[in-house]
Amino acid sequence: MIRPAVAADAPRLAEIHISSWQAAYAGLLPAEYLDGLSDQAELRTAQWLDWLQIDSGKRQILVSVDDPDVVGFAHLGPSGDKDLTPSRVGELYAMYLDPARYRQGFGSELMEATFTHLRESGFEEGSLWVMTDNAAARSFYERHGWYADGTQSDVCLGITIPSVRYRVKL
Length: 170
Ligand SMILES: CC(C)(COP(=O)(O)OP(=O)(O)OC[C@H]1O[C@@H](n2cnc3c(N)ncnc32)[C@H](O)[C@@H]1OP(=O)(O)O)[C@@H](O)C(=O)NCCC(=O)NCCS
Known about the structure:
Elements: E1 2-4, H1 10-24, H2 31-36, H3 41-54, E2 60-66, E3 69-78, E4 89-97, H4 106-120, E5 125-131, H5 135-143, E6 147-156, E7 160-169
Parallel strand pairs: 4-5
Antiparallel strand pairs: 1-2, 2-3, 3-4, 5-7, 6-7
């Protein structure tokens, strides 16, 4: 089941965000960086609360629920890229599942809900950034019709992460 996130979900969103980075990016990002994320639960919870407060209209945080547990989330809204038109391109900012729930179809259900929400918000196209070496996520996105548009960037989060942009027609 998919529903919009509420403020009470913030700690769980932070927990999934951190544990999914640690599971999915082991070997792709420095171990010290990933280990250090465990100390950021409170900080991340506050960040999710902020995002939940500003989210309205075209911005949305959706959660996947395997009753009674929240098992993943998708964060979406207008594109933040300077070369894209935010009124016509919606961005999937992040999609992460609890590592214990990978490869059980929850991501596909979230992706369908993401497409529905982006279409209903009037976007004509979707975009997202994915780590260049994240082969698993790239396979998942390609399975759902996304394609690499040839744009590359180094995302800087204290560490440099080579990333590629994907697009999809909605
Ligand atoms: C990427 C993610 C959202 C996919 O969700 P999921 O529920 O695990 O994926 P699904 O079970 O819906 O998989 C659907 C299809 O995608 C592809 N896929 C999913 N995970 C894959 C993997 N690890 N390797 C290769 N293909 C994969 C397969 O084609 C799969 O179909 P199949 O299982 O019948 O072969 C989830 O695994 C995740 O949170 N990963 C870690 C975080 C991450 O990398 N997020 C993206 C950041 S940009």
